[in-house]
Amino acid sequence: MSAETLAAIAIALGAGWASGLNAYTAVLVLGGAQRLGLVALPQDLQILGSPWVLGVAALLFALNFLADKIPYVDSINDALQTFVRIPAGALLAYGAAGGLSPEVAIIAGLLGGTLAAGTHVAKTGSRALINTSPEPFTNVLASLGEDVTVFGGLALAIAHPITFLCLLAVFVLLLIWLLPRLFRLAMKPFRRMARAPHRPSV
Asked: What is the dihedral of CA 136, 140, 66, 20, to 10 degrees?
């Protein structure tokens, strides 16, 4: 497998993974790297370097940045972002692999959407748990950590694709093990509310 093919696969899977955390950051990083000449994206994704695309992505990133740091508002935002992150992950992965072959591009799109769904569910579940804490600082730290992770992960996928793919494989294994447990923990507050005795009305 050539270095160019490995780089395209790493960027495709990285875009899918990153979109599950923050699709707007993924667009900004890939579009910014394309515009600065740090990466040569396939023809279908070169539009990400457009000033208009980058400007809209930056505005949406700013709105998401604020909403993502307010307790409970972040959970509502995560629910709404389901309709953005997963399709964006599939489309970005498909576009990033578009220069290889149609078959590889479709497979990359399927894997990208699946990775986006996995990271999105993990993010949403962990935020539901964090919101059980009365202080707001954990939300801010978690959100900033996610933004840095997306930026660093995509930068690694561009600069060192083999290293990124190895780390992504470890992440997928960890996610498969973690998701059922995270889901059960996230549902605990709702189960407590359902079991709480209702006071009779006066």
From this structure: -120
- Say how far apart CA 82 and CA 70 lie, in whole Å: 18
In Å, what is the CA distance from 192 to each residue of 37, 129, 196?
53, 13, 6
Angle between helix 73-96 and helix 102-130 axes, rounded to 10 deg? 170
Rg of the chain in Å (alpha carbons):
18
How many residues does this entry show for the chain? 202
Token digits of residue 81: 């972002």
Quick one: which of 132, 154, 152 has its CA closest to 144? 152
Please say whether the beta carbons of 45 and 34 come within 8 A.
Answer: yes
Averages of pLDDT over each 10 residues, the chain, 202 residues: 84 95 94 90 89 96 89 83 93 91 92 93 81 74 90 93 94 86 62 60 50
**Nearest-CA neighbor of 127 among 138, 115, 113?**
138
DSSP designation for 187: H
What pTM does this model have? Answer: 0.84
Cα separation, 32 vs 51, in Å, equals 9
Name residues whose C-beta falls within 8 Å of residue 162's C-beta, 6 or more positions apart in sequence: 6, 10
